[in-house]
Amino acid sequence: MLAIDQREALRAMIGDLRGRDVSDGEVTHFKVAAARALTPHASAVLVDHQFGWDAVLDEKAIDPGCALITAADRFIPGPGEFVADAVIDEDVDPAVVREQGAVAMKLLVIWRPDGDPAARKAMVESFVARCRDHGLASIIEPVSRAPRAGGPYDVDAGIIAAARELGALGADIYKTEVPTHGSGPDDEILTRSRELDDAVDGHWVVLSSGVRAERFPHAVELACRAGASGFLAGRAVWASVVGSDDLDADLHRVAVPALRRLTRVVDEAVSR
């Protein structure tokens, strides 16, 4: 599954490469172009409402064979972070997006060791019920972050702790970071991925943020060997063409083969 729901982080990526400020329209243009080029090769695509949703629908950029997932989270920035927290976006109406073709909604959950577990659980349970009440699948995406108070922090411990806390609350799909962000030895990634599989009651997939693009296919393979159902990722597919002067051509030349390679990895790993 393909993710193009990145927001201010995507604007920053484009701006860094072009060396200037980037307009909302440029961010939207990237999303429409990526959707048009890549969704024929994806089983589903995740789109945000801030920059992408209306445009990809108006432009009919989604391939008919690709399922549509809407981001239903509102990002709250903080010092040094594009996303310091996330909450349910009440402006995303489940009945409306289902009528527009969505089959699922996604919620980002910022997990911090000094955060409130009860508040996180309540938000996830509310989101899952919101999806279920409208016939939509629910996808939650917990990400491990440092404590607000600062100090030493074990990101991997947070990834596993988040899964143990939130992985059995009824979400249809649990979207997780790759253990060690793909940088550890294979045995360690497999062991930690099996811990994720034990913690999550249902299907789980990995995201690519924090993982080197060249390492991500192997990380996906290891996760699938441990029980994952695949990936829901963006940067590993299209980050290398962000800011391209010939975006459409480079999406087809670089990003499409990257996505097709990932789908082959999943097909081979889960069929073993």
From TrEMBL:
<dbReference type="GO" id="GO:0061595">
    <property type="term" value="F:6-deoxy-6-sulfofructose-1-phosphate aldolase activity"/>
</dbReference>
<comment type="similarity">
    <text>Belongs to the aldolase LacD family.</text>
</comment>
<dbReference type="InterPro" id="IPR013785">
    <property type="entry name" value="Aldolase_TIM"/>
</dbReference>
<dbReference type="InterPro" id="IPR050552">
    <property type="entry name" value="LacD_aldolase"/>
</dbReference>
<keyword id="KW-0456">Lyase</keyword>
<dbReference type="InterPro" id="IPR002915">
    <property type="entry name" value="DeoC/FbaB/LacD_aldolase"/>
</dbReference>
<dbReference type="GO" id="GO:1902777">
    <property type="term" value="P:6-sulfoquinovose(1-) catabolic process"/>
</dbReference>
<protein>
    <submittedName>
        <fullName>Aldolase</fullName>
    </submittedName>
</protein>
<dbReference type="Pfam" id="PF01791">
    <property type="entry name" value="DeoC"/>
</dbReference>
